Amino acid sequence: MEILLYTEMGTLLRSNRIFKAALAASILIGACCYLYIVAPDKEDRKAWENIEKIRLVKLGMDTTRVIEIMGQPLEKRVEGGELYFDYEVPSGWSLQCQIIFDSRGNVVYLSPLDHFNE
Questions:
Q1: Which residues contact 40 (CB under 8 A, 6 or more apart)?
Q2: How many CB atoms are closer than 10 A to CB 63?
Q3: Which of 92, 91, 78, 87 is nearest to 113 (CA)?
Q4: If the chain, 118 residues long, is cut into consecutive pieces of 10 residues, what is the mean pLDDT of each piece?
Q5: Residues facing 63 on adjacent strands
Q6: Are 48 and 40 in contact (CB under 8 A)?
Q7: Range list of β-strands (E), the chain
Q8: Residue-wise over 92-109: b if at least 16 C-beta within 10 A, else e?
Q9: What span, in angstroms and rounded, lies between the C-alpha atoms of 12 and 48?
C-alpha cells in the first residue's frame, strides 16, 4: 500500500510541475502577444501624441510656435501659396494630421479635428 501511495504522489507531483510549466508558458505567450499586437509601438505612440498636441495649435499661430508645440513635421510642402505640415497619424486612420499655413505663415486650417480649437 505504501508503494501505491508513493506512486500516486509522484504522479501528482509530476502533474503539478507540468501544470506550473504550462501556466508559465501560457503567461509568457500571452505577454508576447500583448506586446506584439496590443501595445502601441514607438511610432504609433508618436502618432497618438500628434493627435493630442494638435489640440494646442490655434488658428493664426505662426510656424515657429506650431513647431514648438508639435515638433518637426513628417513632411513640409508648398501648394498654391500655402505651406502644409503633415504629421504621423495612428495606423489604420484614414484622416491626416495636417496643419496648413497661409502665405504669411499663419495657421488657417487644422486637420483632422479643426473643431478642437472652437
A1: 48, 90
A2: 17
A3: 87
A4: 52 62 62 52 80 92 97 95 93 86 95 54
A5: none
A6: yes
A7: 75-79, 82-87, 97-101, 107-111
A8: eeeeebbbebeeeeebee
A9: 51
Calculate ∠ Cα 65-118-43, nearest 5°: 55
Helices (DSSP H) in 41-115: which residue ranges?
Answer: 42-53, 63-70
Cell numbers that stand for 70 in this block: 508639435
- Give the span between the Cα atoms of 37 and 41, in whole angstroms: 9
Indicate left, alpha or beta for 16 from its phi (over 0: left) and psi (-120 to 50: alpha). alpha
CB 29 within 8 A of CB 88: no
Residue from 30, 48, 55 nearest 90 by CA: 48
Which of 85, 118, 114, 113 minimizes the C-alpha distance to 101?
A: 85
Neighbouring residues of 8: CB distance < 8 A, sequence distance ≥ 6: none
pTM of the predicted protein model: 0.60
Q: What is the pLDDT of residue 85?
A: 97
